[in-house]
Write a structure and sequence with these properties.
Rossmann fold, elongated, alpha/beta, Arc Repressor Mutant, subunit A
Length: 207
């Protein structure tokens, strides 16, 4: 039997979820709390197999709780509970270390399937949120080397095969300015030629 802890400030929803757990003997609701003030101690004491975490809670939010648990090397899967799909809070939660999420309106039909999925190593989430996660990762890649927006634009232009002269014309800057930008790009990417820079940009999806 898999042990689950629930964090949800809505008492009636907590009771409804507890009732659902009482009807499925594969899972045990080992703890149910209205806030996350003592999340570290509760998780350490109960040692659950999975955590259900409301995003919006008074005092300390579920996102902050996830961040704290992950900073303390907690590897337990955490599924977020949220009212809204496709919002920035869900993305923040996933970036903080959440394993997936369930919309509250779908708890009655999706709860146990999501628990099964996350315990098998999956990440229950909607396609819209998955797209946001991928876009965020790609954006993070492009900033990994500290390139400025202009340097990103010039690197992208270089990658399409444009010459220094064409880049200067496109951005209405001098060729010397282009050379200065490219020198900075080489330094930041730790490369020594245009071929190396373009190859690295493409392989690491910087452009």
């Amino acid at each position: 039997m898999l042990k689950v802890i629930l964090y949800e400030d809505n008492e009636s929803l907590r009771e409804s979820i507890a009732t659902m757990f009482s009807l499925d003997n594969r899972f045990q609701l080992a703890g149910s709390f209205g806030d996350v003030m003592n999340v570290d101690e509760q998780v350490a004491t109960i040692t659950p197999d999975c955590i259900l975490m409301d995003i919006d809670m008074p005092g300390v939010t579920g996102i902050e709780a996830v961040r704290r648990l992950r900073q303390n090397q907690c590897l337990i899967p955490i599924i977020m509970l949220t009212v809204f799909d496709d919002n920035v809070h869900v993305l923040d939660a996933i970036q903080s270390g959440a394993s997936g999420y369930i919309l509250k309106k779908h708890i009655s039909t999706r709860l146990f399937a999501s628990l099964d999925e996350v315990m098998e190593g999956g990440a229950p989430m909607s396609p819209a949120i998955a797209r946001m996660v991928i876009a965020s990762m790609q954006k993070k890649n492009s900033n990994a080397y500290g390139l400025t927006p202009r340097e990103n634009e010039i690197l992208k232009s270089l990658s399409t095969g444009n010459s220094y002269k064409m880049i200067a014309s496109a951005f209405q800057i001098s060729i010397d300015t282009v050379r200065a930008h490219i020198k900075k790009i080489y330094e930041k990417l730790q490369v020594h030629s245009q071929t190396e820079a373009v190859s690295k940009a493409i392989n690491e999806r910087l452009v």
